[in-house]
Automatic annotation (TrEMBL):
This is DUF659 domain-containing protein. SUPFAM superfamilies: Ribonuclease H-like. Residues 97-135, 763-785 are annotated as: Disordered.
Amino acid sequence: MPPKKGPLWQFFHQGGTQNTSHYKAYCLGCIEAHHQTDGNDSDAIDVDADATSSLRDPSEQQWFKDAVAAITHVRGVKSAMLAHLISCPHATKAAKKMAKDLKTGKSAGDESDDGQNSDNNGPPQKRKRFTQVESSMKKQGQLKAFKGVDMPFSDAQRDLVQTQFLRATVSANLPFRWTLNPEVIKLFLMFRSTATDVMPTDKVISGRLLDEEEAKVRKKMVKALKGKYGTASSDGWRDKYSVTGVDVTVGGKSYLIDLNHTRGKKKDGEAMCAAFCEHIDKAEREFGCIIVCYVCDNDGGSQSGRKFLIILRPWLLGLACCAHQANRFQGQLILADYFRESPTGLQTAEDTTGLIGWVNNHERVRDVFDEVQEQLNNSAVAYLMANLTRWTTHSISFNRLLRLKPAMRQAAILRRKEIIDGHVGAEKNKKKKEKMVAEATKYLDLLDDPTFWKNLQAVADDIEPICYITNINQGEKTRADQVLLGFGGVYLHFRDHSDPRIAVGMKKRIEKRWAAMDQDFFVITMVLNPFEKISRLGSQAGASVFGLRTILMRLYCRIKSRPPPSPLTATQQTELDAEKSIKEGQVSQAFLKYMSGMGIFAEFEEDRAGFEKIHGQDPILVWENMRGDPDVRELADFAILCLGVAVNQAGNERDFSDFKIKKTRLRNRLTFKKTEKMSKVGAAIRAEHTAAGFIDPREKRKNHDDTRVAGLIAVPQYADIVENDDESEDEAISSCGLVNSRSAWRKLHVKWMVDARQAEMEMEMDNESGSTDVVEPPAVPGARK
């Protein structure tokens, strides 16, 4: 079967064959001009609205045959057809435009020599690759032995096949040029001999097909986000260029909105505030969502920018990421606080890190310990090292060593000389040898020291709840009430610590971290959880229904102070104020009923056990089903807003992990905009696969013993939300972050101390400035007032 005609043939009539390979091509514009010269208007060639010539099937009529016989034809090859259309005075504008675009290479691609091709993306040599491979297979007899089904593809089938090529490329993280690999072409030819008619080139996949699929994904995103409350978050990622990723999280699912090039741009507070405003405006303008919160890092520029943002737009919540490395009240800084208050713990952590690094860095030493493990446990497990950017690994590393205590001690006692000899090896230098013997002896003595193991157990017990809450805070669906309860659990853990010095010091430091949080928002979110309310607050909390109502109304009025999109007249403003006053009254009355368990809330309490049995403790689902009550609707809407706020940058970190997979060392020329499109399409494909059951759910790691989980932070019902997902970890540092020596541990500890001191200084400056001081925000272009 002859190949499909190229786009140029829509402007030509195909005549008889000029030779064994090509047809005669007659310009439709010339035919129409000859017909009009004859003065016959019947059955003329119609020019449609797109200025493209189309025939009312006149080829069988005499006037058409006369015109064909009278005009000069051209050979039906691309070069001749292009030359004629460009110079023809009778060709339409559409014909001339297409001819010029094809000649300058602006078209979708290149046609074959006879102007007939299925998809024309890519330079000529790319398209020729298919023909070359097919000819090679014919010569070698492979195509004859494994000839695929000889069935042509329809236009619809071609489009579907090419779209699937794009989806397969993104889903399997294949390079765009994989379809040009000769072995891949041979494989598809074995399935279908006409496969090369529809196989796209790398230019087609990375160009038109990727753009079309990204447009489809964008439409789905608009549908999912339109009219919903969302949390915008941003974070930086460095590869060849510095880029900032912007995500919007709605309903516990994050969507990549934009990827911006930030190299050379200012990072001060005013510049960051302007960038945050642009992120929010773009999300609301293009996707129709309602941004109620902005989450970012808490470093200098981002912290100042977020403060300016709240001043410019007081209806927004501004949170520091509750799971990020620069976060001011969780993870890293609480670990830093602990080691500042516990010199013994600091020394033990340093010794442990040095010991693990020593074992891992000396193969013959490690082999001896592995042999003892196999004798005692029938298998040998690894000696885990902590990672700089993954706070939970410190706890995991120490607990693994405690698990290996019997084997490590036995090896240190019974095979001491063998271990020392393995460490020294063939070293002949006397001084170096003495130094190596001293190092091995030091670590072997440490392994045989009961005090070391006692201190290590104490350190592991103290940092485990910190790492546990870090795990909780990394979840994409983690709510503010869960963060607050976990934070309180860590406070209670150290309040009851056996060492009075650590107890007093840690309580003071954690209270400072709490003072830096948006307390109204976190407290009200917990109270609006119908499964919690104030059940977690003790008698010393001083929480009363009326006091909580005051906090609620203060937060509600602040968030609902968002100005209308356009200026209002005096009458409209009066009506708006009256409507706000009515809604505020409804919220206040509904909250009092909620706290008293009256009306619809009494019905929920009666059915609570049955609800939990079927739906679990999902507070958002409870409030969504209360929206139907007009007396409760406004409070329900506000509760959904608060409970739906994302408190971390899990979506951004997951995007960065995906970027590192897509933009590898061999694909470092991939532009960041193309990376953005691939990430969006890939995320949509993964969501489809998950919904269809193609992806088996990943088993969650058990970093904490089941018998200890309930007591770690005294909120056992939140054990199920622990998300040990590597993709939610900070991926901004591309270099190796393993802590495998005492010196590395000291450097890490110094960094923690510096960050902790900086955090304290910033909080003290905020406290000294006072809450009544007015800070002038920067002038942000396009910011709403």
